Amino acid sequence: MTATVEGSAGPKPMFGAPRAHWPQVGTYLFILVPFAALVAAVPLAWGWGLGWVDVALAAFFYTFTCLGVTVGFHRYFTHGSFKATRALRVGLAVVGSMALQGPVLHWVADHRRHHAFADREGDPHSPWLFGTSPAALAKGFWHAHMGWVFDRNLTNAERFAPDMLADPDMRRVHRQFGLWTAVTLLAPALLGALITWSWWGGVTAFFWAGLVRVSFLHHVTWSVNSVCHMIGERPFRSRDKATNFWPLAVLSMGEAWHNLHHADPTSARHGVQRGQVDISARVIWLFEKLGWATEVRWPTQERLAKLTAK
């Protein structure tokens, strides 16, 4: 990985071609249908249609796909926190795609633009774009949390992710987003049916480990965009309002230690203080031990001392 946030700005326009009609319809479906499933899950949870197989499959697919986003889409592809073998690179792109947060080229371009304009005009999902009054912050929270997802203007990947566009493997995985969407929703159903040896086991696994799991992961990820730019602690200096919000730390696999990340975007570890659990960093450490990841950008005490807020 050679492109960084700092090097992404240039003369090319911020937006590329707008999202076409049917992909836009798909965006609404992939956001709203799992969200409806999440809402429906509340009454369904009371003694009907939920078993330990569903819980185990949901937990597995949640962890698996969340790490695809945090380790793959975010720390590796967007920020180049380490170098990876080709097999790991392609695998991370596929597993990240299975989180249903958009194709890899779009995700990376959006996030690099977020860092280039963090909490300023041009940031795709800052909660501070509309002012600081209660009404403006409520509007900003909605926009940062999920409203921005429905914007048909796509970030220009030629400007913000030229390295990804130049990689034929990434272009291929990007085009296969529909395939990985089917896999991430149908694989839990198939496993649920096989484990319970019943079609009903497949139905409940599809609901809990497919739709509900996808929606829950959406909202955890979006909470880093919204909550972690509004509420929390800021022990390190950054040019924006990124914060640490510890209640999200485990569910986000360490992404909620967001202040350090914005202070030092290429760092492979975000949770650097005592007691800050960072599961994604531990996974990167494991990849390094296995020889799949090299040149990992671990934080140093000297670097952290320079970033400490005065």
UniProtKB/TrEMBL annotation:
Transmembrane regions listed in the UniProt entry: 28-49, 55-77, 177-200
Transferase listed as a keyword: no
CDD domains named in the record: Delta9-FADS-like
Sorted UniProt keywords: Fatty acid metabolism, Iron, Lipid metabolism, Membrane, Oxidoreductase, Transmembrane, Transmembrane helix
A GO CC term attached to the entry: membrane
Membrane topology: Multi-pass membrane protein
All residue ranges annotated as the Fatty acid desaturase domain in the record: 51-266
One annotated GO biological process: fatty acid metabolic process
Molecular functions per Gene Ontology: oxidoreductase activity, acting on paired donors, with oxidation of a pair of donors resulting in the reduction of molecular oxygen to two molecules of water
Compartment(s) of residence: Membrane
Keyword Transmembrane helix on entry: yes
Pfam families: FA_desaturase
Family: Belongs to the fatty acid desaturase type 2 family.
Protein name: Stearoyl-CoA desaturase
Organism of derivation: Actinokineospora globicatena
Gene designation: desC
